[in-house]
Each structure stands twice: as structure tokens, then as C-alpha cells.
Design a protein that fits this description.
The protein is an all-alpha fold and 516 residues long. The protein has a domain at 41-288. 80% of the residues lie in helices and 0% in strands. Helix 4 packs parallel to helix 8 (161-169).
Length: 516
């Protein structure tokens, strides 16, 4: 499918950077009140599920690190690496096409369902057959049975993908959120139980499989739609133009997101991969997941107003500032307290993960200011542009991982951080050109947030150094620095970017109710 050309708006017709940022997110920028209400409702439900899921993951992760060894995390991580690849390709990108299209038919829905089911069955069989060679690649025979069991989940997950896309298209985030919250809480309970019984790496496999089974079951219970015995080649061709290009982008994103795990596991060993996995999954992944509610709630709404460039400009600038107001102080604060957090919460056996955590926090900081950039391009049907960007990011990131291997875990993380800077700047330029605005609008949107976050970082870093010199223990330092960060950041944010405070307050006024 070719890109849709968006007619450039005259500069006089577009809001100036200051005007575009002057009102809270729940203003008329999304058009009618019903759409605005649905976005806020979706954001509320998506935030609730992300908080619940990440609390469950964090709590289970903090318990599991005391039952499992780095080797257990590494072996399970190798099996989960293959599983995450399957999830990246399992719906062929057709779900995103269902959400983006202005209108769809019953033939479209059923065709996507049966295509997903066939793909899921094929992937399950492939997982069973390729588990052995995959284990031999890592020189870890234990990986084979883990991956074989995980493969069962590939087919189970395929049964839920069409319903999930239809709920997202209807902006009914309530159903999606309820099933995910229940599934992840159940998965955390199963993982802790298996680990306490001495299951080792099987605890993480059981967690993933439980989430798949429970989430699929609940989605079918909550959905009134059932597939018909219809399969249309015309629907597949029509939706595939967008979906298959998006699938290519997802495959590239998978390669970029998992090449570090693959290379670390293959060349630095399972213990090193365990340290790297804990650095990313226990601490940074939950923080990155804070971006998901915004992405999920906005994508269907942006697709509906894809031809109104002025509104898209306002949405992007405000959301960028809002996400940055949360992610920037969180990541900079983590860089400051990482040694104390590792010592107090994870335990001293994970001390080697501290420098990796700090570097990856810097990566997440940069990514936070572009949390909705790709969704903005996709909503405008510029999926081929997203594909080309994904290709560039993947090539540069994998090259950085390969170069960094010679310096171990720290080298891998550091080289990735270095290439992330130009990559994120390029994504920003793609979005600004698509929206026909200058880079100044983006800088204006985030300037106050950046100033407040940097001031907080400098104060907290200086105080922590003084506390160390005074002989204050790690537990007290951790609590004191976190509290100080909040006390310093909020007043400066109110001074330098009062609009960000108003944005947060406006979101609190949105009441989550049942989706129609």
C-alpha cells in the first residue's frame, strides 16, 4: 500500500509551538467530545493495566532473583528469545491494518482470524522442530525442552489476536485491560510457586505460558464476535498491503531489540545474559512499558483524524511533553540511585548489573521523547517510512552490539547508547517533516521538562555523593534520594513547564468507564 500524501497546511493555519501547547490534552484537539472521552478512557484503562502488569512483574521479579541464579535467567532468556520472535510475526501485521482502516467488513475480520490461526499452528510446529538446533546454537541443551513447551503458547496466542485488534479498533480498552491484568497476576503467582518448589528456569517458562492461556481465555469470554467460515483473498490482499509492510518493520524491531541478547548469550555466556536480562527486564522494561498506554490509546484515535494535520501536531507535541515529564526524571533518577537500588533490592550478587542499568536508563531516556513518533507515522499510513526507519535503526544497533562485545556487557550497552542518539534525532525529523513543522516546535515542547529533570539530576547526584562521604548506608540513601528527587523536580517543573502539570491534572479528570 502506498503512502497517503498529507496536504501541507499553511503555516498560518497551523498552531504555533506555544499555542499548540497552551491547552490541556483533553481540549478540542481530538475533535468531537466522544472521541476525546474515548481517548482519555483508553488512556486510563491502559495505564491501569500497565501499572498492574508491571507491579506484578516487578514483585515477582524481585522474589525470583532470590530463588534463581543468573544462569537460570540466562537459559530461560534464550528460550524466551525465540518466543518473542514468534510473537512479533504471529499476526502478520494484519491486526494493525484492521485498526488503521476507516472501515472493515465481516470478510476482513474472519479472514484475519483464520490467517492468524494458520500462522499460529505453523509456528507451533516450527518451534517444536527447531528447539534442538536452537539449543545447540547456544551450546545449552536445557534450552530445548523449555522452548518446546513455550511453543504450545504460539497457537494459543493466535486465537486471541483478531479479537484484541477489534477491541482496540473500537477503543474498548476495558476488555483488553481486564484480561491482561488477570493474566499477568496469575502468571506472577505461578512463577513464584514454581521457583519456590525448585523449578529453576521453568518458573519463567511457566509464567509466560500461564499469561498466554489466561489472557486468551478471558478475551474470548469478553468478546461477542465469533469468526465465520469465510476467507477472502481480496481482503487478505487489501489488508496485507499495510499489514505485511508493518510486519517487516516489526521483524526489524525484533532483530534490533533482541540481537543484544542473542550475541551476549552466544559469546559471553548464560551468566552474562542473566545479568543483562535482569538489568533490562526487572528494572528498565517496566519503565519503558509506561509508554504503552499512550501508544495504545492514541493509535486508533490518530487514525481517525489522520487527514487533519493541525490536530495531529497538537496531539504529538502535548503527548511528547507529557511522556517526557514522567520518563525523564524517572530515568535520570535511576542513573543516580542504581548502585543503591541494586544493593538493597536485588542483592549484592547482582552488583555487576549496575553499570549496565545506568547505560540502558540513558537509552530509555532518549527513547521516551519519541514514544509516539512511529505511531504518528503509522496513523498517517506512512508505514513504508516506518519500515525504512526500522531498517536503519536495526542495522546501526546490531553493528553497535557487535562492536561492543569486545568490552563485555558494558561495551554492548554503551555502544547501543551511542547510536541511539542519532537514531532518535532522525525519528524526530521524520515526524516533524510529516507534520510540516520545524524542529523548534519539538524543542519548545520539551524544554521546560528537560530543564526540570536535569536540575533534579544534578541536585540528587551531589547529595548522594555527600551522603556517601558522611557514611550513610545504602537503604537510607535510596529512600532519601528518591524523596529529594520528587521534592526538587515538581516545583521546578511547575516553574519551567506549568503546561505539563496541567496536562497531568487534565488526565486525572478523565473517568474510565465501560467501553461501548
Amino acid at each position: 500500500m502506498s503512502e497517503i500524501d498529507v496536504k501541507p497546511a499553511a503555516l498560518s493555519d497551523l498552531p504555533s509551538p506555544r499555542d499548540a501547547l497552551s491547552e490541556p490534552l483533553d481540549s478540542e484537539m481530538l475533535g468531537d467530545a466522544n472521541l476525546r472521552t474515548r481517548v482519555l478512557r483508553g488512556l486510563a484503562w491502559s495505564t491501569a493495566v500497565v501499572v498492574t502488569v508491571q507491579v506484578a512483574r516487578l514483585c515477582s521479579g524481585l522474589v525470583l532473583v532470590h530463588f534463581l541464579q543468573p544462569h537460570d535467567y540466562g537459559v530461560a532468556g534464550m528460550a524466551l528469545l525465540a518466543s518473542s520472535f514468534v510473537l512479533a510475526i504471529s499476526d502478520l501485521g494484519l491486526g494493525a491494518a484492521l485498526v488503521q482502516r476507516p472501515s472493515i467488513s465481516e470478510a476482513d475480520r474472519s479472514t484475519v482470524f483464520w490467517a492468524n490461526v494458520a500462522t499460529g499452528a505453523l509456528l507451533t510446529v516450527s518451534g517444536l522442530l527447531l528447539a534442538g538446533p536452537f539449543a545447540r546454537f547456544f551450546h545449552q541443551p536445557q534450552v530445548r525442552p523449555l522452548l518446546m513447551v513455550l511453543s504450545i503458547g504460539f497457537f494459543i496466542t493466535s486465537l486471541a489476536m483478531t479479537q484484541s485488534a477489534l477491541f482496540q479498533r473500537a477503543m474498548n480498552f476495558r476488555a483488553i485491560s481486564i484480561r491482561l491484568m488477570i493474566a499477568h497476576v496469575a502468571g506472577a503467582g505461578v512463577a513464584i510457586t514454581v521457583a519456590a518448589l525448585g523449578g529453576g528456569a521453568w518458573a519463567l517458562i511457566a509464567q509466560a505460558l500461564t499469561v498466554s492461556i489466561v489472557s486468551t481465555s478471558f478475551l474470548w469470554l469478553l468478546s461477542s464476535w465469533r469468526p465465520r467460515l469465510v476467507f477472502s483473498r481480496g481482503s487478505l490482499r487489501d489488508l496485507g498491503g499495510f499489514g505485511f509492510t508493518y510486519l517487516g518493520s516489526r521483524l526489524l524491531d525484533y532483530a534490533q531489540a533482541n540481537a543484544d541478547n542473542l550475541l551476549v548469550g552466544r559469546y559471553l555466556g548464560s551468566t552474562a545474559l542473566g545479568l543483562y536480562s535482569v538489568s533490562y527486564n526487572v528494572i528498565l522494561l517496566p519503565l519503558q512499558r509506561l509508554f504503552v498506554p499512550v501508544q495504545d490509546a492514541l493509535y486508533p484515535a490518530l487514525s481517525r483524524i489522520q487527514d487533519d494535520v493541525a490536530r495531529l501536531v497538537q496531539v504529538w507535541l502535548r503527548v511528547t511533553r507529557l511522556v517526557g515529564a514522567v520518563s525523564a526524571p524517572t530515568m535520570l533518577g535511576l542513573i543516580v540511585v542504581a548502585p543503591d537500588f541494586t544493593d538493597v533490592v536485588l542483592g549484592r550478587q547482582w552488583a555487576d548489573a549496575t553499570p549496565v542499568i545506568r547505560i540502558l536508563a540513558a537509552v530509555t531516556l532518549m527513547q521516551g521523547f519519541n514514544a509516539v513518533g512511529e505511531r504518528m507515522l503509522m496513523a498517517q499510513a506512512r508505514v513504508s517510512l516506518v519500515f525504512r526507519f526500522s531498517m536503519l535503526r536495526t542495522v546501526l544497533s546490531i553493528g553497535a552490539f557487535v562492536v561492543g562485545l569486545r568490552w563485555g556487557l558494558i561495551g554492548v550497552a554503551a555502544c547501543y547508547a551511542i547510536v541511539t542518539i542519532p537514531v532518535q534525532l532522525y525519528l524526530t525529523s521524520l515526524v516533524t517533516r510529516s507534520l510540516h513543522i520545524g524542529a523548534r516546535a519539538f524543542i519548545t515542547a520539551i524544554a521546560g521538562v528537560a530543564e526540570a529533570a536535569i536540575a533534579m539530576f544534578l541536585v540528587c547526584w551531589a547529595v548522594r555523593v555527600e551522603l556517601i562521604h558522611a557514611g550513610v548506608g545504602a537503604p537510607v540513601r535510596l529512600v532519601a534520594i528518591v524523596a529529594l528527587g520528587v521534592v526538587v523536580y515538581l516545583p521546578i517543573l511547575w516553574w519551567r513547564s506549568p503546561e505539563a502539570i496541567r496536562e497531568i491534572r487534565s488526565l486525572r479528570r478523565g473517568r474510565p468507564t465501560s467501553a461501548a
